[in-house]
Amino acid sequence: MKNTLIALAASVAVLIPAVASAQDDPTKACFIYVGPIGDFGWSYQHHQGLLEAEEHFGDKLETAYLESVPEGADAERAIERFARSGCDIIFTTSFGYMDPTNKIAARFPDVKFEHATGYKREHPNVATYNSKFHEGRYVQGVIAARMSEAGVAGYIASFPIPEVVMGINAFMLGAQSVNPDFQVKVVWANTWFDPAREADAATALIDQGADIITQHTDSTGPMQVAADRGIKAFGQASDMIEFGKETQLTSIIDDWGPYYIERIQAVMDGTWEQHDVWEGMAEGHVVMAPYTNMPDDVKAEAEEIEARIKSGEFDPFTGPIKKQDGSDWLAEGEVAEEGVLLGMNFYVEGVDDQLPQ
Amino acid sequence: MRLELVKRPQQSTLFSALSPFIAFGLTIVAGAILFAALGKDPIETLYYYFIDPLTETWSLHELAIKAAPLILIAVGLSVCFLSSNWNIGAEGQFIMGAIAGSILPVLFPDFQFWFVLPLMLIMGMAGGAAYAFIPAILKVRFNTNEILSSLMLVYVAQLFLDWLVRGPWRNPQGFNFPETRNFHEYAILPEIWSASGRAHWGFVFALVAAFVLWFMLSKTLKGFEVKVIGQSPRAGRFAGFSAGRMVVFAFLVSGAMAGLAGISEVAGAIGQLRPTISPGYGFTAIIVAFLGRLNPLGIVAAGLILALTYLGGEAAQISVGLSDKVVRAFQGSILFFVLACDTLIHYRVRLVRPAQKAEAAHA
Q: Is residue B65 scored above 60 in pLDDT?
């Protein structure tokens, strides 16, 4: 009896400071990156989001991150370590963290999990988020068709997943709106980050006659090759102008800061709820780097299209659009459903590549 | 003036035994200096590195998960290395074991019975052994260099796995992502003690394999044969041992162990095949094997220590903000000191002056 009382008293003593400090303690947000924060692409931009959140919240926020975490068994351990080390919200920023995120979320119902680019939300404490990068790719397509003399662009793609296929299609549609005969050549690099392989792909594409390079991989390798060869290119994920001052036309910047601030705020307020977010230019999640190295009329045209997409007046996937095999996909004026885009596994007419199946 | 290494006529047994500990001590000192130079508290950082991961149950489970493949592969490699067969391709045998073991859950997902898992483990071992048989038979028949052939087969295995998960084995419901379907429940290696963490039976396999191979190497004629052929093939021939059969035996054992590690990792920790299933376990295990003095029981300790540096590296990244790069450099320094200590036990350093050499040439 006496022992029970002591145990009870002890547990109350432990509980009281825990409750009291819960209010004073800063909220802890933790991030897991698939690449190094110095990749100047995907992981770099997520880290910029972390830094933005730190600046916004000051003392109220504590952060931690792990970089270069391989997808697989190591990812599960890394996420669990965060969940146990007092993180209130954990952002897992690569598709391959999807299953580990959901597994750990089941065991830590009080921790919020945010998984980027995935589709599984098996527990109420898992949310997913992504951005409509294809809106920026449409604008790039328009610019490419205006700037290319050969009428051929080279596209360095990572994996044939819907998001990447969607990007190729949006780029193609943008280019076709200017030049119906425009060609897009695709190389599948099968990596998100491998500067040497990406650079090789860029070289191969240029040798095949492409005089504009765009990429859906994360390093600055292709930009540097384009700069050496004296042609133009688009940056990816962050502003890569430092790597191609005479080369970069624009870049799609992933701006995660506003989203991270919003979600961390929700945790602080106790209003966090599961959701699936897919937002683009209108919400400021997709930002175009300054239009450079192009004549003023092209710049004006790009800015105009950007404004129309931002205002919601225009959607890149507006019919009439045919599939690659010539069959009809969208009728005149019809806009693609989000569900179809998120599972996109076909090319639109005119893409000079066979989708790996 | 230059440095020369001269073989010591006699090696100190005391220092041979102490060498791993001296190396570890030197690593700690070098690490402390490195951390202090980076402006981190060295004591705190070392605490997170080596002590913190051992203070919690879940973390011990993670240690077992990380150490299991390293130990399994390394004990198999010890048989190879003791018999002077330089199998550098354990990474490839690991992958092939994982692929062979995954045939059932990936291609026949509806085939769900309790004996699926045992079959997978056997097929995994067979796959790894079969893949190791290639460099072995090439060495016996054509006298090829097994270091090159086994190493190059690693890349073949990696690309084969890559092709499988992007092509014929890709998950039909996976939105074209390069991964196979998730294994069904009968194909998952159970957790040892699921209430406290997710360590699976792979760690038990590792301990059993280490004990069995230790017994074989130290208590049986086969073990004697392995060592005699390794130290002196000529003496082995006089004793009536066949060097060719030993090559095949050593490769089959280490291939089977690597294959078992592969299928255990896939069925236990990952739950599906992905383009990369190993962060280089097959290569790290070579280090583990030598760190453990090619003694299976020593290898268990070495595997746990190396696994600890991975976990501790993460803890240090989170807790004191150490960069990922520093973590890897520190890990590398452990191996540097181990090799340096071993070298200095076998050799002593002598300064050679060019003048002396000229005189010597005259004479």
A: yes
Of A36, A73, A85, the CB nearest to B270: A73
Contact across the interface for A76 and B277, Cβ inside 8 Å: no
For chain B, which residues make up each domain, given as ranges? Answer: 1-40+324-363, 61-307
Q: B4 in helix, strand or coil?
A: strand
Window B:54-73, CB contacts with A under 8 Å: 56, 58-59, 62, 65-66
The verdict on B198 touching A (C-beta cutoff 8 Å) is yes
For domain B61-307, give the CATH superfamily.
ABC transporter involved in vitamin B12 uptake, BtuC (1.10.3470.10)
> B322: number of CA atoms within 13 Å, CB side?
29
Select from B235, B233, B251 the least CA-distant residue to B243. B233
Question: Is the pLDDT at A18 greater than 50, yes or no?
Answer: no
CATH topology of domain A26-131: Rossmann fold (3.40.50)
What band does A5 get if pLDDT is binned at 50, 70 and 90? very low
Is B314's CB within 8 Å of A77's CB? Answer: yes
Nearest to B177 among A68, A82, A95 (CB): A95
Q: Which site among A34, A51, A81, A342 would you substitute to test the B interface, given the most B Cβ atoms closer than 10 Å to its Cβ?
A: A81
Which tokens sit at A53?
């959140």
Average pLDDT over residues A294-323: 93
More confident residue, B32 or A162: B32
Q: Pinpoint the residues of chain A covered by CATH 3.40.50.2300.
A: 26-131, 134-253+285-352
Whether the per-residue pLDDT at B11 is higher than 80: the answer is: no
Residue A356: asked if its preceding bond is cis (omega within 30°), the reply is no
The residue whose two tokens read 């662009």 is A153
Helix (H) or strand (E) holding B351: strand B347-352
Query: What's the pLDDT score for residue A61?
Result: 94
Q: Kindly list the distances between the CA atom of residue A54 and the CA atoms of A57, A62, A287, B135, in Å, as whole numbers in the listed order.
A: 5, 8, 21, 55
List, for residues B209-257, the tens digit of each pLDDT value. Answer: 999 999 999 999 999 999 999 888 888 888 888 889 999 999 999 999 9
Specify burial of residue B303 (Cβ count, 10 A radius: 0-12, 13-18, 19+).
buried
CB-based contact (8 Å) between A120 and chain B?
no
Cβ <8 Å between A72 and B317: no
pLDDT band at A118 (very low <50, low <70, confident <90, very high): confident
**B184 in contact with A, Cβ within 8 Å:** no
Chain B: closest CA distance from residue A71 (Å): 8
CA B308 – CA B314 distance, rounded (Å):
10
Residues A57-79: tens digit of each pLDDT? 999 999 999 988 888 778 999 99
Q: How do strand A321-322 and strand A328-330 relate by DSSP bridges?
A: antiparallel
Q: Name the residue among B198, B274, B314 with its Cβ closest to that of A72.
A: B274
Contact (CB<8Å) B166/A190: yes
The secondary element (H helix, E strand) that includes residue B6 is strand B2-7
Identify the CA nearest to A64 among candidates B307, B59, B42, B322.
B322
Of B62, B177, B324, the CB nearest to A77: B62
Check if CATH label 3.40.50.300 holds for domain A134-253+285-352: no
CA of B156 vs chain A CAs: smallest distance (Å): 17
Q: Is the dihedral of CA A13, A19, A21, A25 positive or negative?
A: positive
- Give the total residue count for chain A: 357
Which tens digits make up the pLDDT trace of B55-64?
888 899 999 9
Q: Is A319 on the interface with B (CB under 8 A)?
A: no
pLDDT at site B355? 60
